[in-house]
């Protein structure tokens, strides 16, 4: 892991210097971009294993950078930003960020989050079967390719939606609380993101259910959480 290349995107020089110093001390290679346009250029030209991304950037916003990268890559993204409102965190995770850290931040915590994301993103094997089908082929899930198909058509789940679905698939019929889904899917301590999970669940249902209001796959257990109800 000490040879992983990390792209740090922030227009505040002091922040960049601090993040770069902490990461290089841990053995990571660090590339720098001070605006969204340059960040996308570097990402398209260099192999990048993880991105630390500010939201308030010149030229192209961090949100837009994240969205564009998510159209082509599942590279782990940590948003590092002064936006502290819960709605900002929810939006950041909903558009594809894997983690969200607010400024001011702890350098040691940032390194810990980086290492945790890299471990999960680049693990050699997945405990789930590589290819799963449900309800007589109505729903197909390819774990290694991060693909979900509904009646043969790509369901186009975001990386975070896929992570939540994968947790539910890991134990069909088991009820997961929102806290458990956050912990198992994203790997950080639960901090009141009920609405984040609910938003992801709503989006997943619209992509894989015939009738999102009467779901067959992602079932609500009222007062507890969610479970997967598909049959193999």
UniProtKB/TrEMBL annotation:
One of its GO terms (biological process) is regulation of DNA-templated transcription. Keywords: DNA-binding, Phosphoprotein, Transcription, Transcription regulation, Two-component regulatory system. One of its GO terms (cellular component) is protein-DNA complex. Signal peptide: none annotated. The modification 4-aspartylphosphate is found at residue 54. Residues 129-230 bind DNA. Residues 129-230 form the OmpR/PhoB-type domain. PROSITE patterns: OMPR_PHOB, RESPONSE_REGULATORY. This is Stage 0 sporulation protein A homolog.
């Amino acid at each position: 892991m000490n040879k992983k290349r990390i792209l740090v995107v922030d227009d505040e020089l002091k922040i960049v210097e601090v993040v770069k110093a902490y990461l290089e001390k841990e053995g990571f290679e660090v590339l720098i971009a001070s605006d969204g346009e340059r960040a996308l250029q570097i990402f398209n030209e260099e192999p990048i294993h993880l991105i630390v991304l500010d939201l308030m950037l010149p030229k192209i916003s961090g949100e837009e950078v994240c969205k564009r990268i998510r159209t082509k890559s599942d590279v782990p993204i940590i948003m590092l930003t002064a936006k502290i409102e819960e709605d900002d965190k929810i939006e950041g995770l909903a558009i594809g960020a894997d983690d969200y850290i607010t400024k001011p931040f702890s350098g040691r915590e940032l390194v810990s989050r980086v290492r945790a994301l890299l471990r999960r993103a680049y693990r050699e094997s997945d405990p789930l079967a590589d290819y799963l089908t449900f309800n007589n082929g109505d729903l197909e899930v390819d774990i290694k390719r991060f693909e979900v198909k509904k009646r043969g058509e790509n369901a186009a789940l975001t990386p975070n939606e896929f992570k939540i679905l994968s947790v539910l698939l890991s134990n069909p019929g088991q009820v997961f609380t929102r806290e458990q889904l956050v912990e198992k899917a994203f790997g950080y301590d639960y901090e009141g993101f009920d609405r984040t999970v609910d938003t992801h669940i709503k989006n997943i249902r619209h992509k894989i259910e015939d009738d999102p209001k009467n779901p067959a796959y992602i079932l609500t257990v009222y007062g507890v959480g969610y479970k997967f109800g598909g049959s193999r």
